[in-house]
């Protein structure tokens, strides 16, 4: 990098996440990096090309040419859409449906190289950190940051600005020569400065801990060797409070949060209980809803009561109800713990969903039947989503099992497992998915995991582009039509509400009123009240009218 005599480094942070087309989320990791580097004097810009632009590559090229950055960071949040089987009927030469994103990220990297050839390029993010050397090689990049990058990113900028060597920066890895997992950083950080681009539509992430105390065979977190670290509870609560207040100012209440921790209740309950007690004591519970991932143990009555009392939702990672499969998956719980868990969440009326993976090592027709019987015993209030087959990721315990049991593998045939390969037994993934579809056809609260990248609706990302002025408002009715039709199986109300929130967040009350009218025309979940929606529609129409007359009104909270 050639040092430039101006006011600090220029930095472009790119959210290199194609799934923003389907499910837009805040670029939380990049927001945390920008916050951590605030004292370095660097000028830092965050760009989310897959969200704001019809042509993401051209968007990155234009931004890089305009900013002429000294440093460009590509934030790789996910490797793929994590949907093993999206179609029950597919050609034999398409054994898996996983949408793999590295080729699209490579297109962004090439755009950066063309438009900002002198910039130092750095990779990072959760997806990158799961297999850093593979990404560095595939994208032809020399530097990356693994784990929580706050400290490493700040040190990187300081050393580049001073013309110093980058050797020894904690968390910084170099292509081809580092023990990358050992470099994984567990840094903390302060209150995240959020980018105003992101609405509350899909929930705001808040991190309270990093790392994981488990080593599940299929999970990339297993590579950390159970390393983990808790954040300062007071700082986490300050971030929650700041997020709630910003949402209130923009007319959103209650606001949805997501605790972006691997498992909120591991290694024990003391930390989540302290966070939830703080939410209660600060009077925040009535102003928010939240969800987090949980392990089935520990999950005490005290924790269940705290979740219910603070408007929480528990997404519980179960994977199987058969002890034989749980044992081979290195899970720290057994069927008896699941039975106790179900009783506990029912007793405390905890909003809950369970996630399962069929086809893991040790799975047989008998264990499938055992787990199916467990699912059938659940109350309909507990939603269940499942996957058929498990993605094999590099360096995980499952990758070592897969190398010894190639007869259970389908997919790209990549011995490194960087590109999509699935493990599935006793049936191939699509056949397993067909059998499970038939098994659970009569259970409305049980469904196969999500709609994949190629099939899912893109109405929310298109809505963003309209409210930001990057697309014409004439597209708005078509966007609402797609959401209302539920083209990917999403309930119309669940698709329309985030679109309305995006419009409110960016003060497009004319568009919010139209979305609200569509909501009033569909079936609503219990949390949405028609009387409130009618009042909101009237409010938005009034505010739109005032703005057309050149009057900037103060927004009133209430479109959660």
**Order of strands across the main sheet:** 7-10-11-12-13-14-18
**CATH domain class of the largest domain:** Alpha Beta
The largest β sheet comes out as: 7 strands, parallel
CATH architecture of the largest domain: 3-Layer(aba) Sandwich
What's the total number of strands?
A: 18
What's the assembly state of these chains? single chain
The structural class is alpha/beta
Number of helices: 20
Number of domains: 4
Low-pLDDT windows of residues: none
Classify the fold: give the CATH topology of the largest domain.
Answer: Rossmann fold
| Termini separation | 47 Å
Give structural notes.
The protein is an alpha/beta fold and 560 residues long. It has four domains: 10-183, 3-Layer(aba) Sandwich (Rossmann fold); 200-292, Transcription Regulator spoIIAA, CATH 3.30.750; 295-389 and 424-450, Transcription Regulator spoIIAA; 459-548, no CATH class. The chain has helices at residues 28-36, 49-52, 56-67, 102-115, 126-130, 132-139, 150-162, 233-249, 270-281, 301-309, 323-328, 335-347, 365-376, 397-404, 429-439, 459-467, 476-485, 492-505, 509-519, 530-548; strands at residues 10-15, 43-47, 71-75, 120-124, 143-145, 172-174, 204-206, 209-211, 228-230, 255-259, 288-294, 312-319, 351-358, 383-388, 390-391, 409-411, 421-423, 446-448. The protein has a seven-stranded parallel sheet. The longest helix is centred in the C-terminal third of the chain and has 19 residues, at 530-548. The model has no long low-confidence stretch (mean pLDDT 92).
